[in-house]
Design a protein that fits this description.
This is NAD(P)-dependent oxidoreductase. InterPro entries: DPD_II, FAD/NAD-bd_sf, FAD/NAD-binding_dom, GltD-like, Helical_ferredxn. With 480 residues, the protein is an alpha/beta fold. The protein folds into 3 domains: 22-135, Alpha-helical ferredoxin (Fumarate Reductase Iron-sulfur Protein, Chain B, domain 2); 150-243 and 404-479, FAD/NAD(P)-binding domain, CATH 3.50.50.60; 250-401, FAD/NAD(P)-binding domain. Helix content is 36%, strand content 16%. The protein has helices at 22-25, 38-45, 55-58, 66-74, 78-86, 92-98, 110-113, 121-135, 158-169, 186-189, 198-210, 227-233, 262-274, 279-282, 300-311, 332-340, 407-410, 443-446, 451-479, and strands spanning 150-154, 173-178, 214-217, 236-239, 245-246, 259-261, 292-296, 316-320, 344-346, 349-355, 362-373, 379-392, 395-398, 402-403, 438-440. The strands form 4 sheets. A 5-stranded parallel beta sheet has the order 3-2-1-4-15, sandwiched between helices.
């Protein structure tokens, strides 16, 4: 029941952790804001109205017990707050950092609707779990009694890691296969450190390794083994590869030197942050230093690219997006952060061609206007007549989103069913693909989405796999 430590949204104003000055933070890849001091975390948690219908929890894909752990934090019961936060999420401190709270929990906070400013849920969640790591409250992954069955997980992103953790807790032998040399997927190589410092991801991975999950890093399904071989090796498989195929732009000059893919660009930058040798960065191909940079796209990946270019010392950074600010898919907070750091947004604009003989020297674009709504309900952009323009560019980053790779071909598994978008087709009740014992979760099923949805999918699919494997074990005992 609420006490005098909560319901303070009228007397206490919303106060996020202070950001470092734009000039200071643009010089490094550290997160742009420090976390709360304990007194401030308790104060801001106490703004929660403890409403009867917590829309924050309803709109959280994980349905976290947000009002309850806010109340516990306000009362100074931090360990209990952490335990409740951790009960529904395998990565609460990661969600606290990179979830678009403005579109999810905080965007649906009751006191936000009342004009008092949302509770700073994400910042409190980050504070709780970071404190738990420091205080030793984060318990090791303890596997359940061994069941004598093994599970293979293809992909070490958030869906794969979440599913692997739950299956190990249930007592299964778990092997994770990933094409990269470090686990974490886009959390490791796609999201820049100023949003998610890499130590935060690596300590989660190390905890899973310490709990007995076996990681096969640098292992590419389709090269090192086919799907059929892994099916023989394990009692069940989880495909959680994510979607990595970049959406294409069809325009003259698209193959010019200096026109690069967003993920190649971000991966090179993140590898440098790990201290790796990255030839494509060091020879300037994937390095924005001293260049006029143009990023094409308006999603969160585009925001990651423009803000990375600023930190690499670009001469100028422009973002071209075909719709207006109100209709962009990326987080409005990220747009604001980018603008603070000197990024120029060219709204209602689209590239038509990329100038330059061999190396790109500029982007020729056209102005756009929003016409009639398309099938999704969004107003479709259409070109304005005679509105061409050119912007200088030494480096163009294509950040138009991602699609599914052709997994049936890549995995030599033609019987693996896909949708018309190339994502894996699953039974909605069982989360199993068209192949018996092969499950799928995360972006490879739902398309490019949020980390928090991938974590949710990993949690859900573990329940389905567990039911399947229990039945399989019963049948094996009967046959014996």
């Amino acid at each position: 029941m609420a006490n005098d430590k909560t319901l303070r949204f009228v007397s206490i104003e919303q106060d996020y952790p202070a950001k470092r000055a734009p000039g200071a933070r643009a010089g490094d890849f550290r997160e742009i804001a420090d976390r709360y001091m304990i007194e401030k975390a308790e104060e801001q948690s106490g703004r929660c109205s403890q409403c009867g219908v917590p829309y924050c929890a309803v709109h959280c894909p994980l349905h976290n017990h947000i009002p309850d752990w806010l109340r516990l934090t306000a009362e100074g019961r931090l360990q209990e707050a952490y335990e409740l936060s951790n009960a529904t999420s395998t990565m609460p401190e990661i969600c606290g950092r990179i979830c678009p709270q403005d579109r999810l929990c905080e965007g649906n906070c009751v006191i936000e609707f009342a004009g008092h400013g949302a509770v700073t849920i994400g910042s409190v969640e980050k504070f709780i779990t970071d404190t738990a790591w420091e205080e030793g409250w984060v318990e090791p992954l303890v596997p359940g009694p061994e069941r004598g069955q093994s599970v293979g997980v293809i992909g070490a992103g958030p869906a794969g890691l979440s599913g692997a953790e739950y299956m190990r807790r249930l007592g299964y032998e778990v092997h994770v296969y990933d094409r990269h040399d470090r686990a974490g997927g886009l959390m490791t190589y796609g999201i820049p450190g100023f949003k998610l410092e890499k130590e935060v991801v690596m300590r989660r991975v190390e905890r899973l390794k310490a709990g007995g999950i076996v990681f096969h890093e640098g292992f590419e399904v389709g090269r090192d083994a086919m799907l059929g071989e892994l099916r023989e090796r394990h009692d069940a498989l989880l495909v959680a590869t994510g979607v990595y195929k970049p959406r294409a732009i069809k325009a003259p000059g698209i193959d010019s030197i200096g026109v690069v893919e967003a993920l190649d660009y971000l991966t090179a930058s993140n590898r440098k942050s790990f201290g790796d040798s990255v030839p494509e960065f060091e020879d300037g191909q994937l390095n924005a230093q001293g260049k006029h940079v143009v990023v094409v796209g308006g999603g969160d990946t585009a925001m990651d690219c423009v803000r990375t270019a600023v930190r690499q010392g670009a001469k100028s950074v422009k973002c071209l997006y075909r719709r207006d600010r109100a209709n962009m898919p990326g987080s409005q907070r990220e747009v604001g952060n980018a603008e603070d750091e000197g990024v120029e947004f060219v709204w209602l604009s689209a590239p038509q061609a990329f100038d330059g003989d061999e190396r790109v020297t500029g982007v020729r674009g056209t102005r756009m206007r929003l016409g009639a709504a398309d099938a999704s309900g969004r107003r479709a952009p259409e070109p304005e007549p005679d509105s061409g323009f050119t912007v200088a560019a030494d480096l163009v980053v294509k950040a138009l989103g991602f699609e599914a790779e052709d997994l049936p071909k890549l995995f030599d598994a033609p019987e693996l069913g896909v949708t018309r978008w190339g994502t894996l087709r699953v039974d909605n009740r069982t989360m199993m693909t068209s192949m018996d014992g092969v499950f799928a979760a995360g972006d490879i099923v739902r398309g490019a989405s949020l980390v928090v949805w991938a974590i949710r999918d990993g949690r859900d699919v573990s329940e389905k796999m567990h039911a399947f494997l229990k039945e399989k074990a019963r049948e094996t005992r009967k046959a014996a």
